[in-house]
Specification:
It comes from Actinomadura decatromicini. This is PQQ-binding-like beta-propeller repeat protein. It holds the Pfam family PQQ_2. The structure is a single chain. The chain has about 900 residues and is mainly β. Among the domains are: about 90 residues, Thrombin, subunit H, CATH 2.40.10; about 230 residues, no CATH class; about 110 residues, Lipocalin (Beta Barrel), CATH 2.40.128. Helices cover about 0% and strands about 45% of the residues. The protein has three helices and 70 strands. Strands 5, 6, 7, 8, 69 and 70 form a six-stranded mixed sheet that branches. The protein has a four-stranded antiparallel sheet with strand order 9-10-11-12.
Amino acid sequence: MWCIRSCVGSCSPTAISRRPRTGCGRWRRKSCGTRWTKRRRLRSAPNELSRGRRHPSASRVSAPGARVPHLGSRGLSIRPAHSRGGECCPLGQSRLPEWAVRAGSIRLSFFLSRSGRVHDQGDSATEGRAGVLISTRKKALLRTGAALVVLAASALPAGRADAAAALTDVGVYEGFGEGSAVAMAPLGGTGDQVVLGGRGLAVLDDNSLKTHKPRWSYHWGDFPVRGQGGDNQWITAVEPLRDPATGRTDQITSTSENELIRFDGRTGRIVWRRADAFLYTFGDRLSLVSQGAGKPPAIVGEYGTTAYSSADGSPLWTATVPEGDFAPGWVTAAQLTRGANPGVVFGAESDCGPGGGPDCTGHLFAYSGDGKRLWEVKPGGQTTSMVADDVTGDGLAETVAGDNQGHVSAYSPTGELLWRVQAGEGSVGAVAVQGGRVYAAADDNVVAFDAAGKRLWSQPMEGQVTKLEPADLGKGGKLLAAVAVASRVGRFVAVDPDRDGDRRTWQSTVYGRVNDFTVGTWHGRRVAIAGANDAVVHAVWADSGEPAFDYLGHSWVTGVDSGRVGQADAIAHTDDQGHVVLSDERGTELWRRWLGGDDEADAEDVVFADVGRSEPAIVAGGAGTQESGVVRAYDGRGAELWTGRAEGRIVQLITARLTASGPKAIVAAVQRGGSSGVAAFDARTGATLWEHMIGSAGATLAAADVDGDGLDEIAYSSKPYPPDTPGTFALLSPSGDVRWKQENFEIRDWLTVSGGAVIFGSRSETGSVAAVSAADGAPRWRTRLGSKVGFGTLVPQRSGVAASTDAGEVALLDAATGRISFRTRIVSEAATAGPLTLLPQGGGDPVIAVSESGGRNRTKVHVLSLDGRVLATSPRFQQGHGIDVAPTGGGAGVAVGAGLSVYSYRYR
């Protein structure tokens, strides 16, 4: 497998090398900001008349936080995360491997299938590049590509600002994304708590498993409320640190933004924070190096050569990297001398270019704990894994290193080569030392050697071992291994080195690739905890491998809706791990269900719908298998009511009145390869009413009664795919027949219907809003706004449509003529105007709520009157692009996506 590493130093082009750090299980960022990662599927936005979603346009790929289309089944993304130390490499300088380019073209049809969706005409909605706001009754939800925020607004007097208006925190369903780093430590109370590092930091206890709320948490943000919302940064390593002065256990963490932070373990308060530490560890342990009796330990981490004080974060000393090498990819504390001051061993990587080679060897070098150079060696291969521990039993640490040619080497505490053996044909992905034995992961095996390098045994692991660590598991064994089976399936395996035959005592399947693991105590019993890249914390009892609990760190939100369950407002959302989740407004999880399908399945969208019962059902849709879709309806308690099937993955859901009696039907956009269409399901039984494949990938739907007969027609648009092939614009009857169809190259980002016209936002001709006759598709009007028009919503009180642009403007247009009533710029910096919706106001005209998105850390909501005056602006919060919205039920409000979390606020 090709490992990809990003630019170095003065932003040289991306280098691609065979660097199987734990078997290429993760791609590492070097000193420049750009970072390649395995990416989860992109979420984006919704559509007028449906909660839709689409990918950011290609024109914005180079913006901070932007992503590129799918490359391969799960794909790669370039995420320019700017370091504070200098500028990032230009995106165009990054070189993709040939296989990635081929895979990208193959997956373009799937990329287009994510582009847009719509709500039924009973709501006011919009879709576009980033997402949609929808308002029904008095509240709304807005979904970003990763999360939700729920805002509830009091009745703002029409036409003037309310100076007393403020956001009041109601609750948060908090997300952390990937389980990049985990630890267990006693942080107050009884027993150990779980520390989860992902796109933020969370401490989990028993109550967290019931409410899905962490004991305390930390995210990056400007909004000073609990739970800051996930964003595009990672906690890359966590390390417990007991403070002898206070008796408490604190947490030392590193982040992907070159930060080093110490947290008070009991409260989450930041003790100190250093923004230029450059410790990029990503799932490995930070090394705490003793400085002697009575002195706080120093902190050393991967890809850094500076030791920092754990007391205040100040730098203590810096190692010098051998000429021609990168910063060390492996760093570990090591007892190299008999004194109380241990050393630090670094493993640096040579700048060898693609593929490495026999001369690509890198360096191993060691420093004493107080910063004095001890030794340096040049191994016979490029180091791919390293550990320092006592192999010979003399109390001092030997350094054991695996390389890219399948060798394992052992070096004395003074750097002399003790032995070098062949562990396998491929790269050695992990090494460990325990009880005078050396263990190495190579060629899907764990191989054991004695202290002299003699091979003892080889244990097949049925997958690539990406991490290997000694652990006291009781009867479960003495060695833990993380095994990658598939892109989203891994195993957590316990090995007993002293058993005969199969030495695996237990193995537990993890939904996702294991990034990190740890062992601690839970309810007085040893427990092993794994953090996975699919946002899962997976806990098993260490002695048996039986499940203890799972905790989902909340993945990318794919759809959201809300309604009344019993006597309370509830919010339903789906995520790209295939889950359907119902929570209350305060963020307490009520239930979670698996939509079903294979391990690559996503849950794509969700709606509250009338299914002929006393209360609405939660209906979710997604991918049942690779080439089929599933729709499932659940009651308010999470019991399944029915299951429907489609010949293609379901990527959008709306409701529409297709018959004169009974509840509205469930209407879905269906993706089948490079084609898309519409399928309708009976809301009471889930039976398929009709299915019609009509166009290319990337469908956008809207449902409304355009001819006045009481039944809804379906407006449909698909993106041009392949790019030189026209897309489809059509109107379908309630029975699925095509009333009219056009084939052209126009890209429509949202649809709505008003006054017998289908109105849409278009990227054509530098951005415009246009209308065609709903009767025959004939053009009625087009108004050019000079910038991409990503979102729109009906304003019945003005017989118009409000639209927002990438230039940061909001415009109100007459639905009959396209004449502009007002045009207001809501942002003063390089930001876009995003999703927008109407908020009803008691006794007066509604107001327009619009999201501003300027990238990470720059998201606000603005409230405008119907004459274009800005009445109120929310505080800034996190990550507002990629948004979906839905009504919350009770009082006037607006919801805004922020990272990976679901927030509830009220305006007062």
